[in-house]
Design brief:
- This protein is of the alpha/beta class and 243 residues long.
- Helix content is 49%, strand content 16%.
- The chain is built from ten helices and eight strands.
- 38% of the residues are buried.
- Bound molecules: pyridoxine-5'-phosphate (PXP).
- Pyridoxine-5'-phosphate binds next to strand 8 and helix 10.
Length: 243
């Protein structure tokens, strides 16, 4: 069965909008695990714009499934990961101004640097995945630098607007996944996956072992939870007004 890693960065994004203590990503992780998540994914960004250092320390203690830390290859973050020891680290590119991780990591262009980061993490028994575009040269480079897994960037598939483009992107992902398998790499995938497109991907790419999904799940949580949240506040106001 394919593992579902729930990315809870957006819970922290809402908290940071007010610099307060709610909503709490640690509580969100516990709810996600109770609902069947096979892992919790968070991105500790260099600018700490959502998840922060205390979050990852608390999550390391509280997550019972698998903690997957998305991270850049910056020395400061690598040091934190070595101390934290998540079950898996996923190396991603990072740019200050981006809205979300925009493309895969260019492993082929930076093999030496990335290899040394992979070694540093593996020394601490952390499984290493690298988020890449579904391209042969990036997959071969991920193998060369010693990654255990690749995470295929599914953004182009998710953004495809015609059936023809969807098919083209699924073929691309499928070819990339079989090539990675041939090389002995595990295959994860993520970015832009929704309640509408995930089934198509899973059917087309049977090599996938893990999906990491964030935005769509947190968006849906707001919609399915808002009714209860409003009712509870109305009940408080009504009971106070009576008294
Ligand atoms: N995988 C990686 C490597 C990511 O950077 C992200 C976004 O943080 C995701 C998966 C989840 O993407 P989305 O929020 O679009 O589901």
């Amino acid at each position: 069965m394919i593992r579902l890693g729930v990315n809870i960065d957006h819970v922290a994004t809402v908290r940071q909008a007010r610099h307060t203590i709610e909503p709490d990503p640690v509580q969100a992780a516990a709810i996600a695990e109770k609902a069947g998540a096979d892992g919790i994914t968070v991105h500790l960004r260099e600018d700490r714009r959502h998840i922060n250092d205390l979050d990852v320390r608390l999550l390391r203690k509280s997550v019972h499934t698998r903690l997957n830390l998305e991270m850049s290859v910056a020395a400061e973050i690598v040091d934190i990961a070595r101390k934290l020891r998540p079950d898996q680290a996923t190396l991603v590119p990072e740019r200050r101004q981006e809205i979300t991780t925009e493309g895969g990591l260019n492993v082929a262009g930076k093999e030496k640097k990335i290899k040394s980061v992979v070694e540093c993490l593996k020394e601490k028994n952390i499984l290493v995945s690298i988020f890449i575009e579904p391209e042969e040269k990036q997959i071969a480079a991920a193998k060369n630098v010693g990654a255990d897994y690749i995470e295929l960037h599914t953004g182009a598939f998710a953004n495809a607007l015609s059936l023809k483009l969807v098919e083209k992107q699924l073929n691309r992902l499928s070819r990339a996944a079989s090539y990675a398998k041939e090389l002995g790499l595990g295959v994860n995938a993520g970015h832009g996956l929704t309640y509408l497109n995930t089934k198509l991907l899973v059917e087309a790419v049977p090599e996938i072992e893990e999906l990491n999904i964030g935005h769509s799940i947190i968006s849906r949580a707001i919609m399915v939870g808002l009714h209860q949240a409003v009712s509870e506040m109305k009940a408080i106001i009504a009971s106070a007004a009576k008294g």
